[in-house]
Amino acid sequence: MKSELLIASCRITLRRGVIVCLLIISCFGVAVAQGKGYSCDPSPDVKAELKKIDKVAEEDLLYKQRRERQLAMFQELLKKYPDDYHVRKRYLDMRNSGFDADEDALIAEYRAEMERRPNDPAAAYLYARLIIGRNTKEAIEKMEKLLASSPDFPQPYLGLAQIYNYPNFRDASKSNENLKKWIAKCPDSTGALQLLSRGDDKELMGEFARRLRARLESSTDPDDIKNYDDLWTLEFKLKPVPEHAQVRQRVAEDLKRLRAKNLNTKEWLSVLQSGYKMAGDKENRLWAEDEMARLFPKSSAARQAIQSRWRDEHPYPKSDDPAEKKQAYYQAALKVTDEWIKLWPDEWYAWSLRFTATAELENTPGSEVEAAGERFLKVMEKNEGAVYMVPPVVSLIAQVYAKRNVATDRIPSLIQKGLEEIERMEKHRRDDLYPREEGDSGNLIYVRWMSWPTLAEAYAKLKQPAKAREVLSRMSEQLKKDKPGDKANQAMKASYANHQVTYWQTTAKVAEAEGRKLDAFTSYQTALAFRPKSAAPKLDKKDELTDDAQRLWKELGGTDEGWNAYLARNEASKGATEVAESATWDSKSQVLPDFALTDLQGKTWKLADLKGKVAFINLWATWCGPCKMELPYVQKLSNQMKDRKDALVLTLNIDDEIGLVDPFMKENNYSFTVIPARAYADGLGVYSIPRNWVVSVDGVLTFEGMGFGNEGEEWMKKAMEMINKVKSGK
User: Distance from the CA of 37 to the CA of which of 3, 221, 247, 306 falls in 20 to 30 A?
Assistant: First the structure.
């Protein structure tokens, strides 16, 4: 991996782009009085009981302990309110939360419940919610039938409005139609706030925002304060960008009034943090974070604020940073985790960072690396269900053990456990909401190809040749299965080429461990022959494959002259079989739809403004970690391109909370053009970022680059390469 040893997810998902049916409890009472708790929001009594369950989250408990206690409380609450929709929904949400939830069992249970209670709309709706993502077409059918048979049960309107926002079911008119009907039925509910803020119906948004502000300003209920964040989001969206300064002034006035309440609650401090962030008031934002840490030192909110501030102050080193800078970063990480694990001894991120630092620091003894790895494994076991990472933690720890040559006997079991874990998770992720390639998922392929080489080499070192060859056989079969066709995109071809290199390099290492030097050298040669130029390390970086091949060549009696002759022949033989340098970019041929969008400076852009120039367009958000790693290079590219008449650099921001963007730009001293374009990106099916587009002079999206792997200057090189390629028309 190029960025960090531990990555929470391979696929970056839009924070509010993935809409799930989360209950957002209204603080303003019941909008529609219906029996059996079928109202838009919980009754005051139910709301008070649900709040008691939520309070358990503030206790210093491990995930499983907290979840078990909350489930027990829900079961008692269901005895008191057996037919209440809101209690039943929250109970289901709790059971379905966590990565260890058995969705198949839940679906079977709730299907049986629906069949047992055919006249209960809540039973049918809860089942429909469960199958969203598994069988969304059936979920739509169930919800539409419910609207016809139970017109006084409003929840399906919200469910359908959410479904029609997913890429595979996107239909803006249907989503908006159901959203309007939900608000008509439930005018006082905040359940649709996220959907409302993502839409483009300014009239509906404005009317709701006016009612919400009036309620909040007259409310005496301290629980209402959490709705200010959503109110501010709506108010920023309702005003054109040039008038955002006025919105910030109003936010500042709200903050002054709210701060004077001195509530000293987590909700109060969280809203102040968010508001100060939108207002661009860094000093007071830091004050709110410090107060959270002082008053609630063991809370997740305090922990996240502390860790986020440390990451801001200690950015992860770039791939082309000098070794001393990287080592200084890991030293700082080791030091800060000394403090964190005292505060939060079983907190997974603190231990992930500590293990990363221990593994990367050059002078750390192997025994300390192993000790940190074993402690990290125990912490992850304690947090089972709460956290899941790709690659699995056990796989990453095995990789480090192999690299540092420690605990070799533990590596096979760790690798096998990681492979079983990823296969189990991917088997249950049958998501029909997003476009997907046929065959195995990218996560599964990635984990297999990072795990198999380590597993084969470990078996070879442990003198278990039959098992090592069994792994090589699996790799060979996978290569046959995955061979791309003529119409495959460049990313697929590049991935396949790299897997070929991995297979032959692993074959060589196994042969060498077994003492078959000539076989090993031949395999190293084959790996070098398959390796694309784009995959070769830079001149100033260690090239393990070439070094191993040259070492073995000399051990077999080869000379420097012979080696140089081999390299020359190898380069000459690649020719037409070489994979394109820009392997992470895919060819596209998509005419962009027209738009009229205003940038942060108040200038309105239309597609016609791009014509006649090659446009490099970056899509990003303030909450996206890889985006924030990429943006310094976007700024650098923008600086390089600013005087060119034949090309330009733009960025499309897809934040929901548009009020956060301008303060973010100022805090980071960025000057590239930013166009808020969430709805436009949604319409084009953008569901993962960062991504980059290169658009031709006639408005055709010609190349698309996905993700950012901390490549630094290599990213710059590829970006310029794509721009010049489109400019030349080749």
Answer: 221
At 79-136, the pLDDT tens digits run 999 999 999 999 999 999 888 888 999 999 999 999 999 999 999 999 999 999 999 9
Does residue 176 sit in the same domain as residue 87?
yes
pLDDT (tens digit per residue) in 27-66 = 333 333 334 667 899 999 999 999 999 989 878 888 889 9
What lies within 8 Å, CB to CB, of 353 at 6+ separation is 6, 333, 336, 337, 340
Which amino acid, 333?
Answer: A
CATH number of the domain bearing residue 634 = 3.40.30.10
Measured in degrees and rounded to the nearest 5, phi and psi for residue 132 equal: -65, 125
Do residues 24 and 172 both lie within one domain? yes
Residue 605 burial (10 A CB sphere; 0-12, 13-18, 19+): middle
Residues 568, 603, single domain; the answer is no
Task: For residue 64, give the 3-state DSSP assignment.
Answer: helix
The pLDDT of 572-576, averaged and rounded, is 53
User: Distance (Å, rounded) from C-alpha 419 to C-alpha 398?
Assistant: 12
Pairing outcome for strands 691-695 and 614-620: antiparallel
Whether residue 42 sits in one domain with residue 74: yes
Report the residue count for the chain. 730
How many angstroms separate the CA atoms of 729 and 696, rounded?
A: 9
Mean pLDDT of the chain: 87
Q: Residue 416 domain-assigned?
A: no
Q: Count of CB atoms within 10 A of residue 112's CB?
A: 12
- Quote the CA–CA distance of 610 and 596 in Å, as a whole number: 12
